[in-house]
Amino acid sequence: MPSTDAWVARHRIVRPWTQRVAGLVALPQLIRQLGGDPEAVLRDAGLERSALDSPDSRIPYEAMVRVLDLAARTTGCGHIGLLAGRLYHLPDLGLVGELVRNSPTVGRALEALTVFQHLNSEGGLAFLLKRGDYVDLGYAPYHAAGAGIAQVCDAALATGMNIMLELCGPTWKPYEVFLPHAKPHDVAQYRAFFKVVPRFDAECSVLRFPARDLARKVPAADPETHHRCEQLVRSAGAPEFMQQVYRGLRRLMLDNRHSGDDLAQMLSMHRRTLNRRLKAGGTTFQRVLDEVRFEIAQDLLSNSNAQLDDIAATLGYAAVTPFMRTFRRWSGTTPGQWRRSLRAKGSEAVD
């Protein structure tokens, strides 16, 4: 498989996306329980032994992806991301979790969760999408960072499930669940936790539930605590500009919108202002769009069995041919060849 390094070196601006440790403080113990060596996993992921000791510490987003990928490989537990996400609860999200827990309604709680997500996590977008009588609460990476992103998507959705159970009560369950990776041989763990069998090979991670759930009152929410937390999170400031660009573009792509004008409107600025600020950051809108599309394409080709025409549609291409042509420009090979070569390498690694 031709290397993508040359394209990345020419076009990708490396961003210092980070992840607050939060509930990952319990990950070393989980790895140990599954027969792995957490210290070796952290070392091989490029992290210090103490990297996950404090919930308020931050680690590189790429390192988090590597940790979960290595943990899955060394323990032989293909659903370790699901188990890791189940360790997360609202208190692990710090100030944002307290704001969510004290919001008056589930709808207000989830809006706060997604708006202030950057205080806990960068590199992927938590989103809330209303689709008629249903709502999607989901997670979509804009910085895929390797094969381990499938574990991150599992962890993010399990976290979302825990949050919904805390807000709505233990009997709540989603209408449908979507995950952006291939169906595992055994779905029992997923079915037991989500209370439904997920649909695999999806575009991104999604919990779909009736829109009426947004009007539910959050039990024991305290208005004074909510007001105090809201003031504190707002004083923390918005995401830095380039993070807003990546997050905004990923959000637009979920609605099949991907133009610079759409992004400028979302960011409440003139298109010329957007172009000028991107230039000051050493990039252009087209380069950012290419980078995000390439990350998503790699993710879906690596981890799912999604058809090429479905991937093309996810990326905003009208047909599969222009996607294949652009992917060859990015990687030096076709999407099908890229996927086959990657999986052949994976089989060799297993052997």
Structure description:
Strand 3 and strand 4 form a beta hairpin. The N terminus is likely disordered. The chain is globular. Helices cover 53% and strands 9% of the residues. 43% of the residues are buried. It is built from 17 helices and six strands. A four-stranded antiparallel β-sheet has the order 3-4-6-5. A two-stranded antiparallel sheet has the order 1-2. The chain has two domains: 219 residues, H-NOX domain (Alpha-Beta Complex), CATH 3.90.1520; 110 residues, Homeodomain-like (Arc Repressor Mutant, subunit A). The chain is α+β, with helices and mostly antiparallel strands and 351 residues long.
Please state roughly what percent of the residues sit in beta strands, choosing from under 5%, 5-15%, 15-25%, 25-35%, 35-45% or over 45%: 5-15%
CATH class of the largest domain: Alpha Beta
Main sheet?
4 strands, antiparallel
Q: If you consult CATH, what is the topology of the largest domain? A: H-NOX domain
Specify the CATH architecture of the largest domain. Answer: Alpha-Beta Complex
Quickly describe the structure.
The chain has a 4-stranded antiparallel sheet with strand order 3-4-6-5. A two-stranded antiparallel sheet has the order 1-2.
